[in-house]
Amino acid sequence: MTRRAPPLRAPLAGLLAGALLAASASAEINPYPPSYCAALWEGYADVLGDRGERALAARFREVSVRRIGEAETDAQIAERRPWMVDLMNAYIYHQDDQSRRLFERLVRGCGDLAGDLSLNAPRD
After folding, report:
1. Which of 55, 75, 85, 91 has the most other CB atoms within 10 Å of its CB?
2. Is a pLDDT exceeding 80 seen at residue 104?
């Protein structure tokens, strides 16, 4: 009998594979373009509440709009935000280890990008 992945892990594996393929096809130096990071922090705030994450998402969105335009940025965020909500739910509420690792990788990548873009600096 072949074991099947639990329902939450199969979509997350697809998300991981898709994210890695998209990242490898990207012209960005950082594997996560700003729109992906905006989606991450919007999804995070959707699940755990907003403690500044939406403001950070907005700053990533601003950078993305300057790079690829508003329509493409918003399309990428709209596509990935539900994935980030699913990722957060699997990690927080189902203690899924694969989701935790992916979340940690996303946070590191987006943190590096925020540092590169000086998004962590206080705004006037």
Report:
1. 91
2. yes
Tell me the residue length of the chain.
Answer: 124
Q: What one-letter code names the amino acid at 70?
A: E
3-state class percentages of the chain: helix first, strand second, coil last, to nearest 5: 75, 0, 25
pLDDT for the residue numbered 12:
52
Stretch 73-80: mean pLDDT: 98
CA–CA separation, 80 vs 42, rounded Å? 10
Question: Hey, what are 66's tokens?
Answer: 């300057």
First to last CA, the chain: 61
What would the two tokens of residue 4 be?
């099947």
Task: Write down the pLDDT at residue 25.
Answer: 46
Contact partners, residue 83, CB within 8 Å, separation at least 6: 15, 39, 43
Q: 60 is written with which tokens?
A: 């990533």
